[in-house]
Amino acid sequence: MTPDIYDKIYSRLLELCPDLRELKRGDYRKSESNGFMDLHLNVLTKTQTEMRVSLSHEYTQGGDQVPDPDMEIRVYLIPDWAKAEALTYQDSRTYTQVYYEEEGRQMVKPNAKTSLNQFLLQWLKNIKAQGHSLKAPYVGDGAMHEDRGIDERWEREI
Known about the structure:
Elements: H1 5-16, E1 28-31, E2 38-46, E3 50-61, E4 64-76, E5 84-90, E6 95-97, E7 99-102, E8 105-108, H2 110-129
Antiparallel strand pairs: 1-2, 2-3, 3-4, 4-5, 5-6, 7-8
């Protein structure tokens, strides 16, 4: 069977962060690559079947860290179903989400789903070409960043 875009995104995420599936809610990784914006990965939620991560480039403007872009990605943890998909995209000017609720039903924006996943696949290729790696916890200031203020009310953690 030919891999689809969701298989390819998953594979590229694992190339970037080989132990991605073992990370826990609140885990944080950072990659610095000379001449490029820092890359950040935060585990937002994790259940038995999926995890949601934030992947972002950040730059400093006026003393503040500005994520641009910042994407939320769903990684499926179901055995023999290695897939990941883009959920949201935001930069300094725009915000796009793939799924939304309307009258109590989950809806999908097909054009956003296609374009965000195509962007994510290309971005992951570019990140690799830039020399980024999220293979080990970030210890830039001498202390491992364990929690970046993730809201405890999210899904039950495994």
